Amino acid sequence: MGIPNVVALGSTTLTEDHINLLLKYNVRTIYLIFDGDEGGVRGTELAIERLAPYCSNNKGRMRAMIYELDSGKDPDDIVREIGPDEFMKKCRSDSVTPFAWTLKKATFQDDPLSVAQKAIPIIAAEESPIARTRMIKDLASITNVSEEDIKKEVELKLDISVGAFLEELSEINKTIQIQLNRRKVGDTKSILEDSLLRIKRLEQ
User: Fold this and answer.
1) Residue 66: which H helix or E strand, with range?
2) By C-alpha distance, which of 169, 194, 164 is closest to 179?
3) Three-state DSSP state, 167
4) Angle of CA points 154, 126, 93, to nearest 5°
5) Do the beta carbons of residue 44 and residue 65 sit within 8 Å?
6) 193, 199, 200, 201: CA torsion to nearest 10
7) Is the predicted pLDDT of residue 111 greater than 80, yes or no?
8) Which of 8-17, 86-95, 126-135, 162-171 comes out lowest in average pLDDT?
9) What's the mean pLDDT in 139-156?
10) Among the ranges given (43-52, 66-75, 111-120), the one the predictor scored with the smallest mean pLDDT
11) Cβ neighbours of 4 (radius 10 Å)
């Protein structure tokens, strides 16, 4: 239909392999557009969860936006109705952030704790302390969960992420030492290049 850089996700599932490819090709902005049905909602929730560690409002990080379709519609229907140019305009103007989409869905959720648990990884992925504080206030007002409790959960998530980062970095260091000791001197450059690539992916 003339819209570039489109990926159709099998079974509405965004996988780690998809994310690794996006990072490899230095993709920085993603529009998630799932069908307007229950499967589309579940697919969006899963995509948000998997993208959260890679996304924030700061430059240099991946930015995900969600364009939600009306019930019973799919992207192909909309493109055929309004044309590719208008479709892309609507994507840019009507899309919302993962956090805003999660809060919007909270209106239809019976369990506010479930909504809070889904939103906490998104908040933890935000690098700006000011933005995190604002998001915590918004989530607290929607779910009636106290700001203090949400803040504790966000900080716990951040501590776990830092711990996992340091553990993986330590593992990379050990691997470098083992490879340098076992392989030929001529392999040094390739060993270091591979390790730098792993560190870049870890930082992302």
Assistant:
1) strand 63-66
2) 194
3) helix
4) 130
5) no
6) 110
7) no
8) 162-171
9) 86
10) 111-120
11) 6
Please give the single-letter amino acid code of residue 56. Answer: S
What is the rounded distance in angstroms from the CA atom of residue 185 to the CA atom of residue 4? Answer: 45
In the numeric block, which tokens belong to residue 70?
């009306």
Give the up-direction half-sphere exposure of residue 88: CA atoms within 13 A in the CB hemisphere. Answer: 8
CA distances from 119 to 45, 88, 102, 133, 143 (A): 10, 27, 7, 13, 11
Task: Say yes or no to pLDDT of 126 above 50.
Answer: yes
The token duo for 15 is: 């996988």
Nearest to 139 by CA among 167, 155, 116: 116
Position 59 pLDDT exceeds 50: no
Q: What count of Cα atoms within 13 Å lies in the side-chain half-sphere of residue 178? A: 7
CA distance 73 to 66: 15
- The mean predicted confidence, pLDDT, of the chain is 83
- pLDDT score recorded for residue 66: 93
Query: Within 10 Å of residue 117's Cβ, how many Cβ atoms?
Result: 13
In single-letter form, the type of residue at position 9 comes to L
Residue 135 tokens read as 């998001």
pLDDT mean over 13-18: 85
H or E segment to which residue 81 belongs: helix 75-82
